[in-house]
Amino acid sequence: VQLVESGGGEVHAGDSLQLSCTASGLSIANGNIRWARKAPGKGPEYVSSANSGGRFTISRDNAKNTVSLQMDVLKPEDTADYYCAADRSYQHILAGRADYWGQGTQVTVSS
Description:
This protein is mainly beta. 5% of the residues lie in helices and 49% in strands. Strands 2, 4, 5, 8, 9 and 10 form a six-stranded mixed β-sheet that branches. A four-stranded antiparallel β-sheet has the order 1-3-7-6, with no helix packed on it.
């Protein structure tokens, strides 16, 4: 299983950025994939629309086996390495588990 993220970069506060993750060796058609991030000096956390105040939107293209993370109105505190994380079990994903992780893509938001 391989997960490859892309789309990171340096942006200014208020900008938007879209990350993509392509999965191989594992179908993500049933939603068994999530986005997570790890900020400097902090532990990893899963990201979602709910915990981003609606600024982040996750979408999946089953035909391409990819998942995207659209991030709008970015803030300096969104600076982190972003990862996609997947598991063969959707139940594991719901429980916050993921056996497979990408290498990460860095997002830096300046004020």
